[in-house]
Amino acid sequence: MKQHPNLYLASASPRRRQLMEALGLSFEVIQAPVEELDPTAELVDEGVIENARKKALSGLHHLGSKSGVVIAADTLVTYEKKVLGKPRDGAEVLTMLELLSGKTHRVVTGLALISTDERTSFSAVSSWVTFKKISLDEKKQYAATFEPYDKAGSYAIQGLGCLFIEKIEGSYTNIMGFPIEKFLQELPHVSGVPAYKWFLPC
């Protein structure tokens, strides 16, 4: 039986690691330090793809003599012509939540898979999230927690941030920062192993 190639997650994000672990796939987390692009809203799809590609290539460089598939992702939130990354402080949390309150925004993730035998996949996945109206007190209480500070758009849909959600369109895991559906679609093309074979009993 053909052995599966090794999987390497080039990400410091605990959410991406948790989602991979939830799939039950064996993988190794590797370092992928890069200088990320700060794209405009018009070029956000291209920007997140390029950031994910740079992370995957950085991870590939750090593999040395190891072989397998490197996986990387980058997520941003957009509303109208604004791109929202991670907030720098509590004031930015309040500003972002006020901007998104009662409105629909887009969450876009760039996904990159690169194998050591030079097969690649680069894509962008979008989801749309509608917030209810958020009171000033709710914003202040949320900003006082640890949760929003390493999240694009200043909220975590898998945590307290779910209290703000009125409606979701598209992939839920994409909003968390790693579109599982797209990953499983692309993994066979880059790994050479059909998706279901990754989940057969040992």
Descriptive notes:
By secondary structure, the protein is an alpha/beta fold. The chain is 32% helix and 25% strand. The protein has six helices and seven strands; from the N terminus they run E-H-E-H-E-E-H-E-E-H-E-H-H. The protein has helices spanning 14-23, 44-62, 90-100, 136-143, 172-176, 180-191, and strands at residues 7-10, 28-30, 69-79, 82-84, 104-115, 120-131, 165-169. Strands 1, 2, 3, 4, 5, 6 and 7 form a seven-stranded mixed β-sheet that branches. Helix 1 (14-23) links the parallel strand 1 (7-10) and strand 2 (28-30). Helix 3 packs antiparallel against helix 4. The longest helix is centred in the first third of the chain and has 19 residues, at 44-62.
The number of E-state strands comes to 7
Ends: how far apart? 11 Å
Report helical residue fraction: 25-40%
> How does the major sheet shape up?
7 strands, mixed
Overall geometric form: elongated
Structural class comes to: alpha/beta
Integer average pLDDT:
93
Order of helices and strands: EHEHEEHEEHEHH
Strand content: 15-25%
Number of discrete helical segments: 6
Radius of gyration: 18 Å
